[in-house]
Design brief:
Rossmann fold, 2 domains, 10-stranded mixed sheet, alpha/beta, binds adenosine monophosphate
Length: about 525
């Protein structure tokens, strides 16, 4: 079933309900959103686009993102979201690989539309900030849209998402209408209860997890708030929430940290935080125990963790608000360091290389099965066969399951360090070093070593105004972890290399060592 029916459903029921906001200003009711998406769909049809054709979205977070995305679905097309921070060459590569026939951009991301003229197969580009080609959007009222929604099967692709590609070329993940519907419905059960009074703020790129969360909020008939900055600005978000009522958002741990830094610097109390934020969902990269404890202390119980990947968007495990609040639980520390329990719509296993279940507590690859899992990689049967085996998605993440079903991630299989025959999971060392005085950020990688095979190298970023002494860092590790896990080298650096989603690029660090 086409995801566009979700929009039509709410628009019929509540056409006058405010839906899309630019900062605090409502720019579309649900009726107007549906009418504009239907108008886009009519225009796609008039251009000869057929169901299954791809259109690329290469724009900063913008209210029109939602109108165009649902317009494409309304016409049965496939949306190719592209991170606005990518280089134009990377964007061209994706458009070419996806064989997209049209691109939607904002002028800040693509100031000169002619740079896209050379991309094969691309028939045209639209700057969404110009008047739409089908006429003035203010002409459209909330009356029922005329163009019928193009029927789609549940397994038809809706969202062709390119992996962030921390190694090699990105792969196009084929996410279907069923996958996204499953994700949306799961939000209510595994992440947060919500209704039409809720509001989501798009503080992270809409080309990623934040954008697909639009579906859950649409299901609830909630408000969709695109900050005027087009992204993350801590002060703006605090103020927006104060003005509009508590916002929910999804953010990577680095962004959550910046929000918490702001709460601390501006001396915003947890009670005041409650006025600005309802729920902050974090995931996409490790959240260290020390960081989430600080976040809870300074901002109150408004956090939920999720673990997923582009191949099963936002759906894997969740560590609920209740779990994060249950400080009296005998295994609270383990829970904090984990990614939580399987979400309702999936099964999770930890398996050896043959796919056999490993005993409780043993490290193996994390496998996911369920209706959120992709159908495969676009035009890449080899990669699909490697990732989808025996009815399971092989995530490439290493982890352990305990008797309760709690999943703790170790690291990506390729990030594991083998030193003197022992496996060392960088995250464990990172968790310890983050507690050492004066340390703001850490990333641990393996460096080739003639004697040990690999040795542990720690890159440490000092907190502002602090200097880090290697002997003290080393003494701290000696006190807190096994000797063999302790870094043989420490590099004090100003910043860590990160990709456009804020994930530390360990590949870059490995090159340095
Ligand atoms: P992406 O496909 O870009 O969403 O990246 C997915 C990867 O991010 C996963 O395979 C994990 O390695 C990592 N990841 C996602 N969520 C979490 C989490 N809650 N904690 C640690 N790592 C995570």
């Amino acid at each position: 079933m086409n995801l566009a029916y979700l929009l039509e459903r709410v628009a019929r029921r509540d056409p006058l309900r405010p839906a899309i906001f630019s900062g605090p200003h409502c720019v579309a009711t649900y009726g107007q959103w549906a009418a504009r998406s239907a108008a886009w769909a009519g225009w796609f049809q008039s251009q000869g686009f057929a169901p299954g054709d791809r259109v690329a979205l290469f724009m900063r977070n913008h209210p029109r993102y939602l109108e165009v995305m649902f317009g494409a679905w309304w016409a049965g097309l496939v949306v190719v979201p592209i991170n606005a921070k990518l280089h134009i060459k990377e964007m061209q590569w994706i458009v070419d690989n996806a064989q997209a026939c049209w691109a939607f951009v904002t002028s800040d991301v693509v100031p000169d539309l002619s740079v896209l003229s050379g991309v094969q197969g691309l028939k045209g580009v639209t700057d969404v900030e110009q008047a739409p080609p089908w006429g003035d959007s203010s002409d459209l009222n909330s009356s029922a849209p005329a163009l019928p929604i193009s029927p789609r099967q549940a397994d038809d692709t809706a969202w062709l998402f390119y992996t962030s590609g921390t190694t090699g070329r990105p792969k196009g993940v084929m996410i279907t209408h069923r996958n996204l519907r499953t994700m949306g419905m799961g939000y209510f059960n595994d992440v947060d209860a919500m209704d039409a009074h809720d509001a989501i703020a798009y503080a992270a790129p809409m080309s990623h997890g934040a954008g697909v969360y639009a579906i859950a909020h649409l299901m609830a008939g909630a408000s969709h708030v695109v900050p005027l900055s087009g992204g993350f600005d801590a002060a703006e978000l605090f103020a927006l929430g104060q003005q509009m009522g508590p916002l929910s958002l999804f953010a990577a741990p680095t962004i959550v940290k910046r929000l918490v830094d702001h709460a601390e610097a501006a001396q915003v109390s947890p009670t005041q935080c409650a006025a600005s934020f309802k729920t902050i969902v974090y995931g996409g990269a490790p959240m260290y125990a020390a960081d989430i404890q600080r976040a809870l202390r300074l901002m109150g119980p408004r956090f939920v963790q999720i673990f997923g990947q582009g191949e099963s968007p936002m759906v894997g495990t969740a560590l609920s608000r209740a779990h994060l609040q249950d400080t009296a639980h005998p295994r609270y520390a383990e829970r904090l360091a984990s990614v939580g329990f399987a979400q309702t719509s999936v099964r999770i296993r930890v398996a050896d290389a043959q796919g056999l279940d490993l005993p409780t507590g043993e490290v193996g690859e994390v496998l996911i099965q369920g209706d959120s899992v992709m159908t495969g990689y676009w035009r890449n049967p080899e990669a699909t066969a490697a990732a989808l085996r025996g009815g399971w998605l092989w995530t490439g993440d290493m982890g352990t399951l305990d008797a309760d079903g709690l999943l703790t991630l170790k690291d990506r299989s390729k990030d594991m360090i083998i030193s003197g025959g022992s496996n060392i999971y960088p995250r464990e060392v990172e968790e310890v070093l983050l507690q050492a005085p004066g340390v703001a950020e850490v990333a641990v990688v393996g460096a080739p070593d003639a004697e040990w095979g690999e040795v542990v190298v720690a890159f440490c970023v000092p907190q502002p105004g602090q200097t880090l002494r290697v002997d003290l860092l080393d003494a701290y590790c000696l006190e807190h972890i096994a000797r063999f896990k302790r870094p043989k080298r420490y590099e004090v650096v100003d910043t860590l290399p990160k990709n456009n989603y804020g994930k530390v690029l360990k590949t870059e660090l490995r090159k340095l060592v």
